[in-house]
């Protein structure tokens, strides 16, 4: 009887082990089948400026879902939420974190200034750069120009400069464009044809303003306010980039044929309208080209339960395959140097590799500590309200 009891006991144990193994297996399969959801917040322009925005977005977002399941055997569904602007996006994340509700796992659309605000509000997780395979192909100066603290990664970049209409600003009529200087606009004739955006209301205007302040203070060793005092009576200042471009695109009526914008604009005009009447200039001193790098990037939101997936997604956004889509869909340069760029794009858009970043002359702390004071002084100089 004892032998029979042992046999029965062994059978019971085997049955119990089988049940445990089966439960573990089915639980694992259920988790894999159910998958994960990664919430992405971005602005209303990311990957939407090309000829086939839906196909491009499918490649980037649905392509990542397929890639992740193939590589890791886990299904991931990306939920994309778009906002009217980058600041609206960041404000939503800040408010949702304060309320303790689920917010984004990843934000796409932080620029040089917004990333500082995001860090100040402790919105972003630190990024483990050692897990980003594609970051090694991003120039270090671009990383430092965007966020040297490691809370966000750069995705695309362009130089803030002066875009001009070659029908009015030809080399014969305006030879100074070849070696443009800020002081060129001390000439009231040139200044009267130039429109800039209000740095308190426009992201483009703010980036141009900070670049001008930094260049005067750090490179020329002059008070930055000198330039605005010299040009204030002759240049045109408008609230937004779209307001500026409305004037720029109608030069016969407005007399405006120079505008502050990204120096990739001529490539956009060539691609969509077959027009080569627009050119772009950066500032040249002692044979060196200088420009403020407008960098657009992404970060992982604090408290996400999907950190590893979010990290993989950032690496995907840095891959040459995805990066090669940015020039013709966001009209900015990829940061990954292995990404393919059309030859004609290089011809019509100022290559960042040829320009020294003004950003490297200043730290995030200096911008954080001085920006409000600079803007207040600018308002006083310009008599702006």
Feature tags:
single chain, 385 residues, alpha/beta, D-Maltodextrin-Binding Protein, domain 2, 2 domains, twelve-stranded mixed β-sheet, disordered N terminus
Structural account:
The chain is of the alpha/beta class and about 375 residues long. About 45% of the residues lie in helices and about 20% in strands. It folds into two domains: about 35-155 and about 295-345, D-Maltodextrin-Binding Protein, domain 2, CATH 3.40.190; about 160-295 and about 360-380, Periplasmic binding protein-like II (D-Maltodextrin-Binding Protein, domain 2, 3-Layer(aba) Sandwich), CATH 3.40.190. The chain has 16 helices and twelve strands. Strands 1, 2, 3, 4, 5, 6, 7, 8, 9, 10, 11 and 12 form a twelve-stranded mixed β-sheet that branches. It starts with a helix and ends with a helix. Residues about 1-35 have low confidence and may be disordered.
Number of strands: 12
The CATH architecture of the largest domain is 3-Layer(aba) Sandwich
Query: How many helices?
Result: 16
Question: Helix amount, in percent?
Answer: 40-55%
Q: By CATH's scheme, which homologous superfamily of the largest domain applies?
A: Periplasmic binding protein-like II
First-residue to last-residue Cα separation: 99 Å
User: Residue ranges: pLDDT <50 for 5 or more in a row?
Assistant: 1-33
CATH fold-type name of the largest domain: D-Maltodextrin-Binding Protein, domain 2
Main β-sheet: number of strands, strand sense, barrel status?
12 strands, mixed
Report the radius of gyration as a whole number of Å.
Answer: 26 Å
């Amino acid at each position: 009887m004892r032998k029979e009891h042992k046999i029965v006991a062994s059978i019971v144990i085997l049955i119990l082990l089988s049940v445990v193994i089966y439960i573990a297996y089915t639980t694992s399969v259920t988790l894999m089948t159910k998958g994960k959801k990664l919430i992405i917040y971005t602005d209303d322009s990311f990957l939407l400026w090309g000829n086939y925005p839906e196909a491009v977005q499918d490649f980037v977002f649905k392509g990542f879902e397929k890639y992740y399941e193939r590589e890791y055997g886990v299904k991931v569904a990306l939920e994309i939420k778009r906002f009217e602007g980058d600041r609206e996006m960041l404000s939503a994340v800040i408010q949702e974190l304060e309320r303790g509700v689920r917010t984004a796992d990843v934000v796409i659309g932080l620029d040089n200034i917004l990333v500082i605000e995001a860090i100040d509000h402790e919105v972003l997780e630190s990024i483990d750069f050692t897990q980003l395979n594609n970051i090694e192909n991003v120039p270090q100066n671009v990383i430092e120009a965007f966020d040297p603290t490691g809370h966000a990664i750069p995705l695309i970049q362009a130089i803030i400069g002066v875009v001009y209409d070659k029908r009015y600003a030809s080399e014969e009529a305006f030879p100074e464009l070849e070696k443009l200087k800020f002081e060129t606009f001390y000439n009231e004739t040139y200044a009267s044809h130039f429109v800039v955006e209000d740095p308190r209301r426009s992201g483009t205007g703010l980036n141009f303003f900070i670049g001008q302040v930094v260049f005067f203070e750090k490179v020329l060793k002059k008070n930055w306010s000198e330039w605005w005092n010299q040009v204030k009576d002759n240049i045109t200042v408008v609230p937004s980039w779209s307001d500026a471009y409305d004037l720029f695109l109608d030069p016969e009526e407005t007399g405006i044929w120079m505008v502050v914008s990204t120096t990739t604009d001529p490539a956009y005009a060539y691609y969509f309208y077959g027009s080569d009447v627009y050119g772009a200039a950066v500032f040249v001193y002692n044979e060196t080209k200088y420009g403020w790098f407008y960098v657009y990037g992404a970060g992982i939101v604090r408290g996400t339960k999907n950190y590893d997936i979010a990290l993989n997604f950032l690496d995907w956004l840095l891959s040459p395959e995805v990066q090669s889509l940015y020039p013709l869909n966001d009209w900015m340069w990829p940061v990954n140097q292995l990404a393919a760029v059309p030859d004609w794009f290089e011809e019509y858009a100022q290559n960042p590799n040829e320009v020294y970043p003004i950003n490297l002359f200043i730290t995030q702390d200096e911008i954080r500590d001085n920006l409000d004071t600079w803007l207040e002084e600018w308002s006083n100089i310009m008599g702006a309200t």
